[in-house]
From TrEMBL:
SMART domains: GAF
Gene Ontology CC terms, in alphabetical order: cytosol
PROSITE patterns reported in the protein's UniProt record: UPF0067
The family this protein is said to belong to: Belongs to the free Met sulfoxide reductase family.
A GO term, aspect molecular function: L-methionine-(R)-S-oxide reductase activity
InterPro entries: FRMsr_CS (IPR000614), GAF (IPR003018), GAF-like_dom_sf (IPR029016), Phosphatase_reg/MetRdx (IPR051330)
Domain GAF, first and last residues per copy: 12-161
Record protein name field: GAF domain-containing protein
PANTHER family: FREE METHIONINE-R-SULFOXIDE REDUCTASE, GAF/PUTATIVE CYTOSKELETAL PROTEIN
Length: 161
């Protein structure tokens, strides 16, 4: 963990995000959330969504940052691991992660939260940082809480088909 990164007030961010997501529309809300996190959570170089639009494949959704890899299969990378296992992936050093996909060579650590709707994986929220060990457990819990706000305030359609 990088000891110099500022503490993030996730409780405050949760209240702000709840107020920001004033529509049930998934495109609007995921776009707003990607921009909000990118602006409010320090030391990120990418924040965005990958959405499952076909079986075992994630497709790029709303994001902030450099152009991104697309598509991502469930068998590849940190996003694929989160999708496959339906478990949050917090990786201190992406270069040590088996099968890591290097979309941006500057990225050093990653946090990926799966989004489950109606017992199905809808997609993942992916955060990248140029700092190794950027994401602590408190960041994981805070970002998972922000994802719950999104899930509670958004109609996420089944896009596979």
């Amino acid at each position: 963990m990088n000891e110099t990164h500022p503490t993030t007030d996730y409780a405050m961010l949760k209240r702000q995000l709840a107020a920001l997501l004033d529509t049930r529309d998934w495109v609007t809300n995921t776009s707003q959330m990607a921009a909000f996190i990118f602006q409010q959570v320090p030391e990120l170089n990418w924040a965005g969504f990958y959405i499952q639009r076909e079986e075992r494949v994630l497709r790029l959704g709303p994001f902030q940052g450099q152009p991104a890899c697309n598509p991502i299969e469930f068998e590849a990378g940190v996003c694929g691991a989160a999708a496959r296992t339906r478990q949050t992936q917090r990786v201190e050093d992406v270069h040590a992660f088996p099968g890591h996909i290097a979309c941006d060579a500057a990225s050093r650590s990653e946090l990926v939260v799966p989004l489950i709707s109606n017992d199905r994986l809808w997609g993942v929220l992916d955060l990248d940082s140029p700092l190794p060990g950027r994401f602590a457990l408190e960041d994981q819990e805070g970002i998972e809480a922000l994802c719950q706000v999104l899930m509670d305030q958004t109609d996420l359609p089944d896009l596979i088909g």
